[in-house]
């Protein structure tokens, strides 16, 4: 109630709809962002939150499933593009040579 908190993050193994709704109402009353990490629920069982989503990895890349969002529709299989993962090549070069190398920022994403 002091409004000293702007984000509440919690990880729970079991939470009821009533408990989740209580957290959401309290966060909304105090204009606080609530991030609730939880175990996966059976398909089509969503929590009473403004956004309920999950992430999983398929054979190609990670994807996000939005099960519920206020003011919008559910969406599934939204790809997460990991095309800009830094290359380990530069790190390997540094370790092998044991000295400083001049690294250009673009070298890290090749």
Mind explaining what this structure looks like?
The chain has 110 residues and is an alpha+beta fold. Helices cover 20% and strands 29% of the residues. It contains 2 helices and 5 strands, in the order βαββββα. The strands form 2 sheets. A 3-stranded antiparallel beta sheet has the order 3-4-5, with no helix packed on it. Strands 1-2 form a two-stranded parallel sheet. Strand 3 (51-57) and strand 4 form a beta hairpin.
Percent in strands:
25-35%
**Strand-and-helix sequence, N→C?**
EHEEEEH
What class would the helix/strand composition place it in?
alpha+beta
First CA to last CA: what distance? Answer: 49 Å
Largest sheet: 3 strands, antiparallel
Q: In order across it, which strands form the biggest sheet?
A: 3-4-5
Entry summary:
The protein is α+β, with helices and mostly antiparallel strands and 110 residues long.
Salient structural properties:
110 residues, three-stranded antiparallel sheet, two-stranded parallel ribbon, alpha+beta, 29% strand
List the helices and strands and how they pair.
Layout: E1 7-12, H1 17-29, E2 33-38, E3 51-57, E4 62-69, E5 75-79, H2 89-97
Parallel strand pairs: 1-2
Antiparallel strand pairs: 3-4, 4-5
